[in-house]
Amino acid sequence: NGSKTFITNGVSSDFIIAAVKTDPSAKRRGISLLIIDRDSPGLSATKLNKLGWRASDTGEIAFDQVKVPVKNLLGEENMGFFYIMQHFVSERLSLAVGAVASSAYALELSLQYMGERSAFGRTLNKFQVLRHRVAQMAAEIEMNRAFVYSLYQRYQAGEYIVKEASMAKLLATQLADRVMTQCLQMFGGYGFMEDYPLARMFRDARLGQIGGGTSEIMCEIIAKALIDQVRYAPPKSEQET
Ligand SMILES: Cc1cc2nc3c(=O)[nH]c(=O)nc-3n(C[C@H](O)[C@H](O)[C@H](O)COP(=O)(O)OP(=O)(O)OC[C@H]3O[C@@H](n4cnc5c(N)ncnc54)[C@H](O)[C@@H]3O)c2cc1C
Fold it and tell me: Which range of residues forms the domain containing residue 63?
């Protein structure tokens, strides 16, 4: 029994992986992952109306006396919390790389438009204030790209980079927010029109600082490592803990 708001593809998915309490007294050591069939009796989902990311649905899922076969346990019992923590590294890295890629694309579109649109007898790309703005954005995109690529290499090499992935998500999604705002501005009135891609990119970028853990939570994870000397370590199996 229970419910969860904000589930990506919660309405259109065929099955759901839910983190459920299998030993409520054990807190984080009492959570397990279950694969739940979307058509299970008692499972319902409501589609939510949202600002952006409309290519996927976001749903609120409710469980009312839903029965799940024991064989649908994913991994070890009561290890769910640690699996989720581990997954956050790849989720945050992918959100960071998406933020960098969409920023680079927005800049590319803007550079093209700036070369085509004339105002006061000059194309936009001749106005120094706008030239400096694109230079600043390009520099920040390159810095973020290099950081994210280096983290992917470390991640693939097996390093457990919780703090660094949080840093990458924090900075890259903040950057995407700024870049979309500034690139939309380059398009003037057309930036506000749905006929041009910037309107959608502007809306979509806003999720970056919320989904997969907010920017404030990213700062919290980083601060815990820096100030409280928290050492993030990969999950051990139930036998080892
Ligand atoms: C489109 C979309 C898709 C999503 N998909 C999924 C999904 O598939 N699966 C899933 O599990 N979740 C999903 N989420 C949920 C998402 O991860 C959460 O919305 C997000 O982590 C923020 O949690 P919250 O909404 O409960 O905000 P809250 O926790 O209520 O936070 C509200 C505000 O308070 C701030 N805050 C909270 N705690 C602290 C603190 N300790 N210090 C400082 N500030 C703090 C937050 O940063 C935020 O600004 C999705 C959300 C959206 C919008």
Answer: 2-78
- Of all protein residues, whose CA lies closest to atom 42 belonging to ligand 1? 216
> Are both 54 and 105 inside the same structural domain?
no
ipTM value of the model? 0.98
- Measured in Å, residue 82 CA sits from the centre of ligand 1 at 19
Q: Which atom of ligand 1 is nearest to the CA of 53?
A: 1
In a domain, 19, yes or no: yes
Task: State whether 7 and 55 are in the same domain.
Answer: yes
Low-confidence ranges of the chain (pLDDT < 70): 235, 237-241
The model's pLDDT over 175-194, given as tens digits with 9 standing for 90+, comes to 999 999 999 999 999 999 99
167 & 207 share domain: yes
Classify 79 as helix, strand or coil: coil
Name the residue of 217, 219, 224, 227 whose CB sits within 8 Å of the most ligand 1 atoms, as the mutation to test its pocket.
Answer: 217
User: Among this protein's residues, is 91 annotated catalytic?
Assistant: yes
Residue 233 in any domain: the answer is no
Q: Are 114 and 125 a contacting pair, CB within 8 Å?
A: yes
The CA-atom distances, in angstroms, between 114 and each of 50, 101, 196, 200 are 31, 20, 14, 19
For residue 211, the CA-to-ligand 1 centroid distance in Å is 6
CA atoms within 13 A on the CB side of 165: 23
Last residue of a domain, one of 78, 108, 129: 78
